Amino acid sequence: MDALRLKNVGYRYSDGTRALENVNIVIRAGERVSLVGPNGAGKSTLLHMLDSLYLPTEGELEVAGIRVDKKTAPQATMKAGLLFQDPDDQIFMPRVWDDVAFGPINMQLGEEEVRKRVERSMALAGVSEYADRAPHHLSFGEKKRVAIAGLLAMDPDIYLLDEPTANLDPASRRALVDVLRSLDKSIVLATHDLTVAFELTQRVIVLKRTVLYDGDLRGLMARPDILAEANLELPSIPRLMTEWKARSGRGFEVPTTMEEALDLLDRETAPSR
Ligand SMILES: Nc1ncnc2c1ncn2[C@@H]1O[C@H](COP(=O)(O)OP(=O)(O)OP(=O)(O)O)[C@@H](O)[C@H]1O
Ligand SMILES: [Mg+2]
Description:
single chain, 10 strands, Rossmann fold, binds magnesium ion, four-stranded antiparallel beta sheet, about 40% helix, 2 domains
């Protein structure tokens, strides 16, 4: 079964703003996809819709095989979990521990299972030490990590992540990428940071009210027109290696990650015997 299916989906806000138009996407169960595009492209709108919080105003949406409408939305929303772009929209309990526990308690899990999930996910998100603090006193990045812990504690089939790494310090960002990589779940990750996209996903969807590109990251690197149209910039490693390839006249495939780049440099610069 596919995780998400969108057919000719559109969304118009009540003030008439048309945020999405004619969106066609299929995401398989277990697939990880990046969603990129300029400010106002409709990324957050789309993620709300995939969590069945907004219903399409045009077209058809299926979440885990459920055709989403007013009646089925409460059931469909259980299949997915949304990390909001702004953690203040997500965190509301007076104590961090209770906030992370809110989802699992709502899922009617037993006390012991709730405790286990909360402790594990707080450790994964690096927020164990804030357990007794008041969320509204935390920094933005700390709040974002608390919200991530809350989502991990619920462990939905489909993770919908709106800018999960924005405002995280570099070590926390890397730790989060490792946690997300280890999950065997469907992930849709909205980001402006193509470095995270390269680290976490093969497939990227470029959105600007409608889908401009849907394919692998390597293919996107070869489309400067789309990168420009979507206000995107390649991360420094592929940018540097593309430039070196052009200057040196070498014929390699441009690496996208640090590991690939190091392997390539070893090969290309090894003294010939
Ligand atoms: N509640 C609302 N009412 C009316 N228009 C809205 C509402 N929320 C968002 N919009 C508009 O819908 C469009 C898409 O917004 P959205 O927040 O989905 O973009 P985004 O791709 O997430 O942008 P960003 O990269 O800045 O987070 C924008 O033009 C925005 O102004
Ligand atoms: Mg957004």
